[in-house]
Structures
1.
Amino acid sequence: NPVPLMPLVEVVRTVTTSPETFDRAYAFAKSLGKEAVTANDNPGFIVNLLLVPFLLDAARALERGIATTADLDRAMQLGCGHPMGPLTLMDYIGLDTVVKIADIMFDAYREPRYSAPPLLQRMVIAGYHGRKNGRGFYDYSVDPAVPSELGLGGKR
Protein backbone atom coordinates (compact mmCIF):
# COMPACT_ATOMS: atom_id res chain seq x y z
CA ASN A 1 0.00 0.00 0.00
CA PRO A 2 -0.22 2.24 -1.99
CA VAL A 3 -0.74 0.01 -5.00
CA PRO A 4 1.69 1.81 -7.36
CA LEU A 5 4.51 1.19 -4.87
CA MET A 6 3.67 -2.42 -4.08
CA PRO A 7 5.75 -4.95 -5.98
CA LEU A 8 3.09 -7.66 -5.47
CA VAL A 9 -0.03 -8.46 -7.47
CA GLU A 10 -2.29 -11.28 -6.37
CA VAL A 11 -3.75 -12.74 -9.55
CA VAL A 12 -6.98 -14.40 -8.51
CA ARG A 13 -8.38 -17.51 -10.12
CA THR A 14 -12.14 -17.93 -9.70
CA VAL A 15 -14.13 -21.06 -10.45
CA THR A 16 -15.07 -19.56 -13.82
CA THR A 17 -11.68 -18.14 -14.86
CA SER A 18 -10.41 -19.80 -18.00
CA PRO A 19 -6.74 -20.77 -18.15
CA GLU A 20 -6.25 -18.31 -21.04
CA THR A 21 -7.75 -15.40 -19.09
CA PHE A 22 -5.71 -16.23 -16.03
CA ASP A 23 -2.50 -16.48 -18.06
CA ARG A 24 -3.19 -13.10 -19.73
CA ALA A 25 -3.85 -11.43 -16.35
CA TYR A 26 -0.69 -12.96 -14.89
CA ALA A 27 1.38 -11.83 -17.89
CA PHE A 28 -0.13 -8.34 -17.69
CA ALA A 29 0.88 -8.01 -14.03
CA LYS A 30 4.41 -9.13 -14.90
CA SER A 31 4.52 -6.63 -17.80
CA LEU A 32 3.92 -3.86 -15.26
CA GLY A 33 7.07 -4.93 -13.45
CA LYS A 34 5.12 -6.55 -10.65
CA GLU A 35 5.80 -9.84 -8.91
CA ALA A 36 2.69 -11.95 -9.49
CA VAL A 37 1.41 -14.70 -7.24
CA THR A 38 -1.57 -16.97 -7.76
CA ALA A 39 -4.46 -16.91 -5.32
CA ASN A 40 -7.72 -18.77 -5.34
CA ASP A 41 -10.86 -16.70 -4.95
CA ASN A 42 -11.56 -16.35 -1.23
CA PRO A 43 -12.18 -13.36 1.04
CA GLY A 44 -8.84 -11.73 1.76
CA PHE A 45 -6.98 -13.65 -0.97
CA ILE A 46 -3.48 -14.28 0.48
CA VAL A 47 -2.16 -11.09 2.03
CA ASN A 48 -5.26 -9.92 3.87
CA LEU A 49 -6.09 -13.46 4.98
CA LEU A 50 -2.82 -13.40 6.95
CA LEU A 51 -2.42 -9.67 7.60
CA VAL A 52 -5.81 -8.80 9.09
CA PRO A 53 -5.54 -11.14 12.12
CA PHE A 54 -2.03 -9.79 12.75
CA LEU A 55 -3.28 -6.19 12.71
CA LEU A 56 -6.26 -6.98 14.92
CA ASP A 57 -3.98 -8.81 17.37
CA ALA A 58 -1.83 -5.67 17.63
CA ALA A 59 -4.92 -3.66 18.62
CA ARG A 60 -5.85 -6.39 21.11
CA ALA A 61 -2.34 -6.27 22.61
CA LEU A 62 -2.63 -2.50 23.05
CA GLU A 63 -6.12 -2.88 24.53
CA ARG A 64 -4.80 -5.43 27.05
CA GLY A 65 -1.92 -3.18 28.05
CA ILE A 66 0.79 -5.52 26.77
CA ALA A 67 2.85 -2.54 25.60
CA THR A 68 2.47 1.04 24.46
CA THR A 69 1.58 2.01 20.91
CA ALA A 70 5.15 3.04 20.14
CA ASP A 71 6.67 -0.08 21.72
CA LEU A 72 4.32 -2.47 19.89
CA ASP A 73 5.17 -0.84 16.58
CA ARG A 74 8.90 -0.66 17.25
CA ALA A 75 9.03 -4.28 18.41
CA MET A 76 7.56 -5.50 15.12
CA GLN A 77 9.87 -3.27 13.11
CA LEU A 78 13.01 -4.39 14.90
CA GLY A 79 11.99 -7.95 15.74
CA CYS A 80 10.40 -8.91 12.44
CA GLY A 81 11.95 -6.46 10.00
CA HIS A 82 8.65 -4.81 9.11
CA PRO A 83 8.99 -1.37 7.48
CA MET A 84 6.35 0.00 9.87
CA GLY A 85 4.57 -1.33 12.91
CA PRO A 86 1.04 -2.78 12.77
CA LEU A 87 -0.62 0.20 14.48
CA THR A 88 1.08 2.62 12.10
CA LEU A 89 0.01 0.41 9.20
CA MET A 90 -3.61 0.44 10.36
CA ASP A 91 -3.46 4.24 10.55
CA TYR A 92 -2.08 4.26 7.01
CA ILE A 93 -4.80 1.94 5.69
CA GLY A 94 -7.52 3.73 7.67
CA LEU A 95 -9.01 2.34 10.87
CA ASP A 96 -12.49 2.48 9.37
CA THR A 97 -11.24 0.50 6.38
CA VAL A 98 -9.57 -2.09 8.62
CA VAL A 99 -12.82 -2.57 10.57
CA LYS A 100 -14.80 -2.92 7.33
CA ILE A 101 -12.35 -5.53 6.00
CA ALA A 102 -12.44 -7.37 9.33
CA ASP A 103 -16.26 -7.38 9.27
CA ILE A 104 -16.33 -8.82 5.74
CA MET A 105 -13.82 -11.51 6.64
CA PHE A 106 -15.56 -12.36 9.91
CA ASP A 107 -18.87 -12.72 8.05
CA ALA A 108 -17.18 -15.06 5.56
CA TYR A 109 -15.15 -17.22 7.95
CA ARG A 110 -16.89 -16.83 11.33
CA GLU A 111 -13.50 -17.05 13.04
CA PRO A 112 -12.83 -14.84 16.09
CA ARG A 113 -9.42 -13.83 14.73
CA TYR A 114 -11.21 -11.74 12.10
CA SER A 115 -13.41 -9.93 14.62
CA ALA A 116 -12.42 -6.31 15.19
CA PRO A 117 -11.59 -5.77 18.88
CA PRO A 118 -13.68 -3.35 20.94
CA LEU A 119 -10.89 -0.74 21.09
CA LEU A 120 -10.70 -0.52 17.31
CA GLN A 121 -14.49 -0.35 16.99
CA ARG A 122 -14.67 2.43 19.60
CA MET A 123 -11.93 4.39 17.87
CA VAL A 124 -13.78 4.29 14.55
CA ILE A 125 -17.06 5.32 16.19
CA ALA A 126 -15.20 8.23 17.83
CA GLY A 127 -13.94 9.36 14.42
CA TYR A 128 -10.38 8.05 14.67
CA HIS A 129 -9.70 6.95 11.11
CA GLY A 130 -5.91 7.24 11.02
CA ARG A 131 -3.83 9.35 8.68
CA LYS A 132 -6.81 10.23 6.47
CA ASN A 133 -8.22 12.51 9.16
CA GLY A 134 -5.16 12.97 11.36
CA ARG A 135 -6.31 10.84 14.30
CA GLY A 136 -5.70 7.18 14.90
CA PHE A 137 -3.25 5.26 17.00
CA TYR A 138 -1.08 8.30 16.37
CA ASP A 139 -1.84 12.01 16.37
CA TYR A 140 -0.80 13.41 12.98
CA SER A 141 -1.49 17.05 13.85
CA VAL A 142 2.14 17.32 14.96
CA ASP A 143 5.31 16.43 13.11
CA PRO A 144 6.55 13.88 13.86
CA ALA A 145 3.33 12.12 14.80
CA VAL A 146 3.01 11.03 18.41
CA PRO A 147 1.01 8.18 19.94
CA SER A 148 -2.57 9.19 20.68
CA GLU A 149 -3.79 9.26 24.25
CA LEU A 150 -6.40 6.51 24.17
CA GLY A 151 -7.10 6.30 27.89
CA LEU A 152 -5.39 2.93 28.15
CA GLY A 153 -2.63 3.78 30.60
CA GLY A 154 0.79 2.32 30.01
CA LYS A 155 2.21 5.68 28.90
CA ARG A 156 5.83 6.45 29.55
2.
Amino acid sequence: MENKTYQHRIATRMLRFTDRDGNPLSNAAVEYRLANHEFLFGSGAFDSLPATAQGNHGHIDFYQDQINPDQRFYQDRMEKWLKVFNYGTIPFYWRGFEPREGEPLTESRMSAARFLKERNVRVKGHPLCWHSVCADWLMEYDNATILKKQIDRIHREVSVFRGVIDMWDVINEVVIMPVYNRYDNAITRICKEYGQIPLVKTVFEAAKEANPDAVLLINDFNLSEKYRELIADLLDAGVPISAIGLQTHQHQGYMGRERLEEVLERYSCFGLPLHFTENTLISGDIMPKEIVDLNDYQVEQWPSTPEGEERQCREWKEMYQILFGHPLVEAVTGWDFADGAWLHAPSGVIREDNTIKPAYLELQRLIHKEWTSSGVLHTDANGMAQLQGYRGAYVLSRAAEHADYTLKKDEDLSIQTIQLN
Protein backbone atom coordinates (compact mmCIF):
# COMPACT_ATOMS: atom_id res chain seq x y z
CA MET A 1 0.00 0.00 0.00
CA GLU A 2 3.02 2.28 0.10
CA ASN A 3 2.66 2.86 -3.66
CA LYS A 4 1.10 6.34 -3.91
CA THR A 5 -0.29 5.48 -7.35
CA TYR A 6 -3.15 3.63 -5.68
CA GLN A 7 -3.76 5.84 -2.64
CA HIS A 8 -7.17 6.81 -4.00
CA ARG A 9 -8.19 3.14 -3.63
CA ILE A 10 -7.36 3.11 0.08
CA ALA A 11 -9.43 4.23 3.06
CA THR A 12 -8.81 4.57 6.79
CA ARG A 13 -11.36 4.03 9.53
CA MET A 14 -11.23 3.95 13.33
CA LEU A 15 -13.08 0.93 14.74
CA ARG A 16 -14.17 0.13 18.27
CA PHE A 17 -14.21 -3.56 19.13
CA THR A 18 -16.46 -4.87 21.87
CA ASP A 19 -17.77 -8.15 23.19
CA ARG A 20 -21.45 -8.98 22.90
CA ASP A 21 -22.18 -7.19 26.15
CA GLY A 22 -20.67 -3.98 24.83
CA ASN A 23 -17.47 -4.15 26.84
CA PRO A 24 -14.35 -3.01 24.99
CA LEU A 25 -11.93 -5.67 23.75
CA SER A 26 -8.88 -4.14 25.38
CA ASN A 27 -5.39 -4.89 24.10
CA ALA A 28 -6.71 -7.56 21.75
CA ALA A 29 -5.41 -8.84 18.44
CA VAL A 30 -7.95 -8.79 15.59
CA GLU A 31 -7.15 -10.23 12.20
CA TYR A 32 -8.40 -8.44 9.10
CA ARG A 33 -8.61 -9.65 5.50
CA LEU A 34 -9.96 -8.03 2.35
CA ALA A 35 -12.53 -10.51 1.05
CA ASN A 36 -13.83 -8.57 -1.96
CA HIS A 37 -12.62 -5.41 -3.65
CA GLU A 38 -14.88 -2.41 -4.11
CA PHE A 39 -13.23 -2.01 -7.52
CA LEU A 40 -14.86 -4.18 -10.17
CA PHE A 41 -12.33 -6.57 -11.67
CA GLY A 42 -14.38 -8.20 -14.38
CA SER A 43 -14.64 -10.62 -17.22
CA GLY A 44 -17.33 -11.75 -19.59
CA ALA A 45 -19.29 -14.40 -17.69
CA PHE A 46 -21.14 -15.92 -20.63
CA ASP A 47 -19.94 -19.37 -19.57
CA SER A 48 -22.11 -19.11 -16.47
CA LEU A 49 -25.10 -19.89 -18.71
CA PRO A 50 -24.07 -23.39 -19.81
CA ALA A 51 -22.53 -23.97 -16.35
CA THR A 52 -25.89 -23.43 -14.64
CA ALA A 53 -28.37 -24.40 -17.37
CA GLN A 54 -31.10 -26.88 -16.48
CA GLY A 55 -32.46 -26.77 -20.01
CA ASN A 56 -32.27 -24.45 -22.99
CA HIS A 57 -30.10 -21.46 -22.20
CA GLY A 58 -30.58 -19.98 -25.63
CA HIS A 59 -28.42 -19.05 -28.54
CA ILE A 60 -25.48 -16.97 -27.30
CA ASP A 61 -25.03 -15.43 -30.73
CA PHE A 62 -21.32 -14.79 -31.22
CA TYR A 63 -20.35 -17.88 -29.23
CA GLN A 64 -22.83 -20.57 -30.16
CA ASP A 65 -20.40 -22.79 -32.07
CA GLN A 66 -18.17 -22.98 -28.99
CA ILE A 67 -20.71 -24.80 -26.81
CA ASN A 68 -19.40 -28.05 -25.32
CA PRO A 69 -22.11 -30.62 -24.45
CA ASP A 70 -20.41 -31.47 -21.13
CA GLN A 71 -21.73 -29.12 -18.44
CA ARG A 72 -18.85 -30.08 -16.15
CA PHE A 73 -16.50 -28.41 -18.65
CA TYR A 74 -18.18 -25.05 -18.00
CA GLN A 75 -18.42 -25.63 -14.27
CA ASP A 76 -14.65 -26.14 -14.24
CA ARG A 77 -14.25 -23.00 -16.31
CA MET A 78 -16.36 -20.96 -13.91
CA GLU A 79 -14.42 -22.28 -10.90
CA LYS A 80 -11.31 -20.81 -12.51
CA TRP A 81 -13.20 -17.61 -13.31
CA LEU A 82 -14.22 -17.13 -9.68
CA LYS A 83 -10.63 -17.38 -8.46
CA VAL A 84 -9.82 -14.08 -10.17
CA PHE A 85 -12.88 -11.88 -10.79
CA ASN A 86 -15.64 -10.20 -8.76
CA TYR A 87 -17.64 -8.72 -11.63
CA GLY A 88 -19.29 -10.47 -14.56
CA THR A 89 -21.24 -9.52 -17.68
CA ILE A 90 -23.94 -11.88 -18.95
CA PRO A 91 -25.65 -11.67 -22.37
CA PHE A 92 -29.07 -10.20 -23.05
CA TYR A 93 -28.72 -9.87 -26.84
CA TRP A 94 -32.33 -9.61 -27.88
CA ARG A 95 -32.09 -12.17 -30.69
CA GLY A 96 -30.73 -14.82 -28.36
CA PHE A 97 -32.67 -13.84 -25.26
CA GLU A 98 -36.07 -13.75 -26.96
CA PRO A 99 -35.77 -15.76 -30.20
CA ARG A 100 -39.58 -15.93 -30.42
CA GLU A 101 -41.67 -12.96 -29.40
CA GLY A 102 -43.12 -13.32 -25.95
CA GLU A 103 -40.83 -16.23 -24.99
CA PRO A 104 -37.79 -14.68 -23.27
CA LEU A 105 -35.28 -17.09 -21.77
CA THR A 106 -35.48 -15.36 -18.42
CA GLU A 107 -34.80 -18.38 -16.23
CA SER A 108 -31.46 -19.19 -17.87
CA ARG A 109 -30.17 -15.66 -17.19
CA MET A 110 -31.65 -15.66 -13.71
CA SER A 111 -29.91 -18.93 -12.87
CA ALA A 112 -26.58 -17.59 -14.11
CA ALA A 113 -26.99 -14.24 -12.36
CA ARG A 114 -27.96 -15.82 -9.05
CA PHE A 115 -25.05 -18.25 -9.30
CA LEU A 116 -22.69 -15.28 -9.61
CA LYS A 117 -24.36 -13.08 -7.00
CA GLU A 118 -24.33 -15.90 -4.43
CA ARG A 119 -20.55 -15.92 -4.87
CA ASN A 120 -20.26 -12.17 -4.22
CA VAL A 121 -19.94 -11.27 -7.89
CA ARG A 122 -21.49 -8.03 -9.15
CA VAL A 123 -23.48 -8.78 -12.32
CA LYS A 124 -24.15 -6.58 -15.33
CA GLY A 125 -26.63 -7.26 -18.14
CA HIS A 126 -25.51 -6.49 -21.70
CA PRO A 127 -27.21 -4.86 -23.61
CA LEU A 128 -30.82 -3.66 -23.44
CA CYS A 129 -30.79 -1.81 -26.77
CA TRP A 130 -28.48 -2.52 -29.70
CA HIS A 131 -28.84 -2.56 -33.45
CA SER A 132 -26.71 -5.69 -33.86
CA VAL A 133 -27.99 -9.22 -33.04
CA CYS A 134 -31.40 -7.63 -32.58
CA ALA A 135 -34.60 -9.70 -32.59
CA ASP A 136 -35.49 -10.47 -36.21
CA TRP A 137 -39.21 -10.62 -35.48
CA LEU A 138 -39.22 -6.86 -34.76
CA MET A 139 -38.84 -6.21 -38.48
CA GLU A 140 -42.51 -6.97 -39.16
CA TYR A 141 -43.60 -3.93 -37.14
CA ASP A 142 -43.71 -0.21 -37.92
CA ASN A 143 -41.26 2.11 -36.18
CA ALA A 144 -43.67 3.37 -33.53
CA THR A 145 -44.44 -0.20 -32.52
CA ILE A 146 -40.75 -1.15 -32.54
CA LEU A 147 -40.00 1.70 -30.14
CA LYS A 148 -42.85 0.66 -27.84
CA LYS A 149 -41.63 -2.94 -27.81
CA GLN A 150 -38.10 -1.75 -27.05
CA ILE A 151 -39.38 0.26 -24.09
CA ASP A 152 -41.49 -2.67 -22.89
CA ARG A 153 -38.48 -4.99 -23.18
CA ILE A 154 -36.40 -2.67 -20.99
CA HIS A 155 -39.16 -2.36 -18.38
CA ARG A 156 -39.53 -6.15 -18.29
CA GLU A 157 -35.85 -7.08 -17.96
CA VAL A 158 -34.82 -4.35 -15.54
CA SER A 159 -37.86 -4.99 -13.32
CA VAL A 160 -37.65 -8.79 -13.30
CA PHE A 161 -33.92 -8.83 -12.51
CA ARG A 162 -34.01 -6.00 -9.98
CA GLY A 163 -32.03 -6.99 -6.91
CA VAL A 164 -30.08 -9.60 -8.86
CA ILE A 165 -28.83 -7.47 -11.74
CA ASP A 166 -28.71 -3.79 -10.88
CA MET A 167 -26.25 -2.69 -13.55
CA TRP A 168 -27.00 -2.51 -17.28
CA ASP A 169 -25.45 -1.49 -20.56
CA VAL A 170 -28.60 0.37 -21.54
CA ILE A 171 -27.65 1.15 -25.12
CA ASN A 172 -24.70 -0.07 -27.15
CA GLU A 173 -22.68 1.64 -29.87
CA VAL A 174 -24.89 4.66 -30.49
CA VAL A 175 -22.28 6.58 -32.51
CA ILE A 176 -22.60 4.21 -35.47
CA MET A 177 -26.22 3.23 -34.85
CA PRO A 178 -28.03 5.60 -37.28
CA VAL A 179 -25.60 4.89 -40.14
CA TYR A 180 -25.07 1.17 -39.55
CA ASN A 181 -25.47 -0.53 -42.94
CA ARG A 182 -24.17 -4.09 -42.68
CA TYR A 183 -27.80 -5.25 -42.64
CA ASP A 184 -31.23 -3.77 -42.07
CA ASN A 185 -32.43 -3.92 -38.47
CA ALA A 186 -35.20 -2.52 -36.32
CA ILE A 187 -33.08 -0.42 -33.97
CA THR A 188 -31.21 1.45 -36.69
CA ARG A 189 -34.61 2.17 -38.23
CA ILE A 190 -35.95 3.86 -35.10
CA CYS A 191 -32.66 5.62 -34.44
CA LYS A 192 -32.83 7.17 -37.91
CA GLU A 193 -36.43 8.23 -37.43
CA TYR A 194 -36.32 9.56 -33.88
CA GLY A 195 -32.67 10.63 -33.65
CA GLN A 196 -29.81 9.53 -31.42
CA ILE A 197 -30.46 11.80 -28.45
CA PRO A 198 -34.25 11.21 -28.22
CA LEU A 199 -33.75 7.45 -28.53
CA VAL A 200 -31.01 7.32 -25.89
CA LYS A 201 -33.05 9.51 -23.56
CA THR A 202 -36.10 7.28 -24.02
CA VAL A 203 -34.32 4.00 -23.28
CA PHE A 204 -32.44 5.42 -20.28
CA GLU A 205 -35.62 6.84 -18.81
CA ALA A 206 -37.32 3.46 -19.25
CA ALA A 207 -34.51 1.72 -17.37
CA LYS A 208 -34.56 4.38 -14.65
CA GLU A 209 -38.31 3.97 -14.20
CA ALA A 210 -37.92 0.21 -13.79
CA ASN A 211 -35.07 0.47 -11.27
CA PRO A 212 -34.27 3.97 -9.95
CA ASP A 213 -31.23 2.63 -8.10
CA ALA A 214 -29.64 0.81 -11.05
CA VAL A 215 -26.25 1.76 -12.48
CA LEU A 216 -26.99 2.65 -16.11
CA LEU A 217 -24.25 2.75 -18.74
CA ILE A 218 -23.87 4.01 -22.26
CA ASN A 219 -21.30 1.88 -24.09
CA ASP A 220 -19.28 2.33 -27.28
CA PHE A 221 -16.19 1.22 -29.19
CA ASN A 222 -15.86 4.60 -30.89
CA LEU A 223 -13.58 6.46 -28.48
CA SER A 224 -13.17 9.53 -30.67
CA GLU A 225 -14.47 13.06 -30.20
CA LYS A 226 -17.78 11.91 -31.71
CA TYR A 227 -18.56 9.82 -28.66
CA ARG A 228 -17.43 12.53 -26.25
CA GLU A 229 -19.59 15.11 -28.01
CA LEU A 230 -22.56 12.74 -28.00
CA ILE A 231 -22.20 12.17 -24.26
CA ALA A 232 -22.00 15.93 -23.67
CA ASP A 233 -25.22 16.43 -25.65
CA LEU A 234 -26.94 13.58 -23.79
CA LEU A 235 -26.02 15.00 -20.40
CA ASP A 236 -27.24 18.43 -21.49
CA ALA A 237 -30.52 16.72 -22.43
CA GLY A 238 -30.83 15.28 -18.94
CA VAL A 239 -30.11 11.64 -19.79
CA PRO A 240 -29.42 9.80 -16.48
CA ILE A 241 -26.08 8.23 -17.39
CA SER A 242 -24.47 6.64 -14.32
CA ALA A 243 -21.17 5.64 -15.94
CA ILE A 244 -19.42 5.83 -19.30
CA GLY A 245 -18.64 2.52 -20.99
CA LEU A 246 -15.45 2.35 -23.07
CA GLN A 247 -14.60 -0.61 -25.30
CA THR A 248 -11.06 -1.51 -26.38
CA HIS A 249 -11.14 -4.60 -28.58
CA GLN A 250 -7.43 -4.66 -29.40
CA HIS A 251 -7.32 -7.43 -31.98
CA GLN A 252 -4.96 -5.31 -34.08
CA GLY A 253 -2.46 -4.78 -31.30
CA TYR A 254 -2.21 -3.22 -27.86
CA MET A 255 -3.12 0.47 -27.86
CA GLY A 256 -0.29 1.30 -25.44
CA ARG A 257 0.08 3.67 -22.52
CA GLU A 258 -0.02 6.94 -24.47
CA ARG A 259 -3.22 6.11 -26.33
CA LEU A 260 -4.87 4.73 -23.20
CA GLU A 261 -4.03 7.87 -21.25
CA GLU A 262 -5.46 9.99 -24.07
CA VAL A 263 -8.75 8.11 -23.77
CA LEU A 264 -8.77 8.58 -20.00
CA GLU A 265 -8.16 12.31 -20.36
CA ARG A 266 -10.86 12.70 -23.02
CA TYR A 267 -13.61 11.10 -20.94
CA SER A 268 -12.53 12.35 -17.52
CA CYS A 269 -13.93 15.78 -18.34
CA PHE A 270 -17.44 14.66 -17.32
CA GLY A 271 -16.44 13.57 -13.83
CA LEU A 272 -18.50 10.40 -14.28
CA PRO A 273 -17.24 6.92 -13.40
CA LEU A 274 -15.43 5.22 -16.28
CA HIS A 275 -16.00 1.53 -16.98
CA PHE A 276 -13.72 -0.23 -19.43
CA THR A 277 -16.47 -2.61 -20.46
CA GLU A 278 -15.10 -4.78 -23.25
CA ASN A 279 -11.36 -5.32 -23.54
CA THR A 280 -9.49 -7.89 -25.59
CA LEU A 281 -5.77 -8.48 -25.91
CA ILE A 282 -4.57 -11.16 -28.32
CA SER A 283 -2.14 -13.99 -27.50
CA GLY A 284 -1.60 -15.06 -31.09
CA ASP A 285 -1.00 -13.37 -34.42
CA ILE A 286 -2.29 -9.80 -34.53
CA MET A 287 -5.17 -9.00 -36.89
CA PRO A 288 -3.95 -7.11 -39.99
CA LYS A 289 -4.09 -3.34 -39.61
CA GLU A 290 -5.96 -2.82 -42.89
CA ILE A 291 -9.11 -4.49 -41.52
CA VAL A 292 -11.62 -1.69 -40.83
CA ASP A 293 -14.46 -3.71 -39.27
CA LEU A 294 -13.10 -6.41 -36.96
CA ASN A 295 -16.00 -8.67 -37.96
CA ASP A 296 -14.56 -8.85 -41.49
CA TYR A 297 -11.61 -10.92 -40.26
CA GLN A 298 -12.93 -14.46 -40.48
CA VAL A 299 -10.48 -17.31 -39.97
CA GLU A 300 -11.09 -20.97 -39.20
CA GLN A 301 -8.28 -21.15 -36.66
CA TRP A 302 -6.54 -18.46 -34.67
CA PRO A 303 -4.13 -20.21 -32.31
CA SER A 304 -2.54 -18.88 -29.19
CA THR A 305 1.27 -18.99 -29.19
CA PRO A 306 3.83 -19.04 -26.35
CA GLU A 307 5.30 -15.74 -27.52
CA GLY A 308 1.85 -14.22 -27.87
CA GLU A 309 0.87 -15.35 -24.40
CA GLU A 310 3.88 -13.66 -22.83
CA ARG A 311 3.08 -10.49 -24.78
CA GLN A 312 -0.57 -10.61 -23.72
CA CYS A 313 0.50 -11.02 -20.09
CA ARG A 314 2.72 -7.92 -20.21
CA GLU A 315 0.00 -5.89 -21.91
CA TRP A 316 -2.74 -6.87 -19.45
CA LYS A 317 -0.44 -6.05 -16.55
CA GLU A 318 0.31 -2.56 -17.84
CA MET A 319 -3.31 -1.86 -18.77
CA TYR A 320 -4.55 -2.95 -15.35
CA GLN A 321 -1.95 -0.83 -13.60
CA ILE A 322 -2.88 2.26 -15.62
CA LEU A 323 -6.62 1.83 -15.12
CA PHE A 324 -6.48 0.88 -11.44
CA GLY A 325 -4.27 3.92 -10.97
CA HIS A 326 -6.88 6.34 -12.39
CA PRO A 327 -9.36 7.74 -9.83
CA LEU A 328 -12.38 7.77 -12.15
CA VAL A 329 -12.07 4.18 -13.35
CA GLU A 330 -14.40 1.90 -11.39
CA ALA A 331 -14.45 -1.26 -13.50
CA VAL A 332 -12.38 -3.19 -16.03
CA THR A 333 -13.77 -6.16 -17.95
CA GLY A 334 -11.77 -8.56 -20.04
CA TRP A 335 -14.33 -9.50 -22.64
CA ASP A 336 -13.41 -13.11 -23.36
CA PHE A 337 -12.47 -15.29 -20.42
CA ALA A 338 -11.51 -18.17 -22.73
CA ASP A 339 -9.94 -18.29 -26.19
CA GLY A 340 -11.99 -19.02 -29.27
CA ALA A 341 -15.03 -16.87 -28.52
CA TRP A 342 -15.69 -13.75 -30.61
CA LEU A 343 -14.03 -14.15 -34.06
CA HIS A 344 -12.31 -17.34 -32.76
CA ALA A 345 -9.63 -15.04 -31.37
CA PRO A 346 -7.04 -16.12 -28.76
CA SER A 347 -8.33 -13.32 -26.56
CA GLY A 348 -8.95 -15.11 -23.27
CA VAL A 349 -6.84 -15.53 -20.18
CA ILE A 350 -7.42 -19.27 -20.36
CA ARG A 351 -7.17 -21.50 -23.42
CA GLU A 352 -10.06 -23.27 -25.12
CA ASP A 353 -9.33 -26.45 -23.16
CA ASN A 354 -9.56 -24.51 -19.86
CA THR A 355 -5.82 -24.53 -19.18
CA ILE A 356 -4.59 -21.24 -17.78
CA LYS A 357 -2.34 -18.73 -19.52
CA PRO A 358 0.28 -16.38 -18.06
CA ALA A 359 -2.19 -13.47 -18.13
CA TYR A 360 -4.55 -15.38 -15.83
CA LEU A 361 -1.82 -15.85 -13.24
CA GLU A 362 -0.70 -12.23 -13.51
CA LEU A 363 -4.20 -10.82 -12.99
CA GLN A 364 -4.73 -13.18 -10.09
CA ARG A 365 -1.46 -12.00 -8.56
CA LEU A 366 -2.27 -8.30 -8.98
CA ILE A 367 -5.81 -8.52 -7.64
CA HIS A 368 -5.39 -11.01 -4.82
CA LYS A 369 -1.76 -10.57 -3.74
CA GLU A 370 -0.41 -7.15 -4.68
CA TRP A 371 -3.63 -5.13 -4.38
CA THR A 372 -4.97 -6.64 -1.19
CA SER A 373 -4.98 -5.89 2.52
CA SER A 374 -4.60 -8.26 5.45
CA GLY A 375 -2.90 -8.35 8.83
CA VAL A 376 -3.52 -7.91 12.53
CA LEU A 377 -5.02 -4.92 14.35
CA HIS A 378 -4.02 -4.32 17.96
CA THR A 379 -6.68 -2.58 20.03
CA ASP A 380 -5.88 -0.11 22.80
CA ALA A 381 -7.31 -0.09 26.32
CA ASN A 382 -10.63 1.22 24.97
CA GLY A 383 -10.89 -1.43 22.26
CA MET A 384 -9.94 1.07 19.53
CA ALA A 385 -7.92 0.23 16.43
CA GLN A 386 -7.43 1.81 13.03
CA LEU A 387 -8.14 -0.16 9.87
CA GLN A 388 -6.42 1.01 6.69
CA GLY A 389 -6.61 -0.85 3.41
CA TYR A 390 -8.02 -1.14 -0.06
CA ARG A 391 -11.71 -0.31 -0.05
CA GLY A 392 -14.08 -3.26 -0.07
CA ALA A 393 -15.61 -6.02 2.06
CA TYR A 394 -13.50 -7.27 4.98
CA VAL A 395 -13.63 -10.19 7.35
CA LEU A 396 -12.57 -9.29 10.90
CA SER A 397 -11.82 -12.20 13.19
CA ARG A 398 -10.67 -13.05 16.70
CA ALA A 399 -10.38 -16.71 17.61
CA ALA A 400 -13.59 -18.35 16.35
CA GLU A 401 -15.53 -15.08 16.10
CA HIS A 402 -15.98 -13.33 12.76
CA ALA A 403 -17.58 -10.08 11.65
CA ASP A 404 -18.08 -8.54 8.23
CA TYR A 405 -17.19 -4.92 7.61
CA THR A 406 -17.17 -2.77 4.47
CA LEU A 407 -14.41 -0.20 4.23
CA LYS A 408 -15.70 2.66 2.11
CA LYS A 409 -14.45 6.00 0.90
CA ASP A 410 -13.59 8.38 3.74
CA GLU A 411 -16.87 10.27 3.92
CA ASP A 412 -18.43 9.37 7.28
CA LEU A 413 -15.59 9.42 9.80
CA SER A 414 -17.64 8.39 12.83
CA ILE A 415 -16.28 5.51 14.87
CA GLN A 416 -17.84 2.16 14.01
CA THR A 417 -18.46 -0.52 16.62
CA ILE A 418 -17.67 -4.14 15.82
CA GLN A 419 -18.82 -6.92 18.14
CA LEU A 420 -16.45 -9.83 18.67
CA ASN A 421 -16.27 -12.03 21.77
